[in-house]
Model the fold of this input.
Amino acid sequence: MSDCCTPNANSADSCAIPNAAANTTADGCCAVTPVRSQTQTTDQTTCPVCGTKGKSIESQTVKAMLDVSLATLKSDGYRFCRNESCQVVYFGADDDVYTEDDLRERVHQKHPDAADVFVCYCFRHTPGSIHRELLLTGRSTVVEQVNAGIQAGQCACEIRNPQGSCCLGNVTATVKRAQKSFVPVAA
Done:
């Protein structure tokens, strides 16, 4: 996983998380601590770190994605934080948060342009593999491949995808971004 801090990880002032400079871990990195003002309520639909409204997610997805003991689960229900700049992936009641460091997989929504992060977790497509196919063939068949897998009953996005739902929207958007940046090689 990437470091949450700027290059000077030994300084508490280097933390990339807003309002967290005074709260670092033993290794000098930023601790994910909820940021609440006195007027902010304990609304469990918004991320306690960034305030983004979270998407409700099935507990089986959270359990499948966690790379920590399930004994750490404190909440009955969790939400998914889509905010690319927020470290939190899942959050629940009582400031129960899990970051990407707590998961088995890196999360596409947190790294939408990273070549090696899965955009499709069931069929293992990445922005890099989509770009390679464009370079080799001049087009992408990933959307068709994913649709064929869905039709064949091979999809398990509800469990394998950290967002807990179908990846097809993310795949389509990634293909479109790759096609916009694709420059065919002259023959």
Remarks:
- Confidence is low (pLDDT under 50) at residues 1-42.
- The helical segments are 59-65, 127-137, 142-151, 157-160, 168-181.
- The beta strands are 55-57, 78-80, 88-91, 97-99.
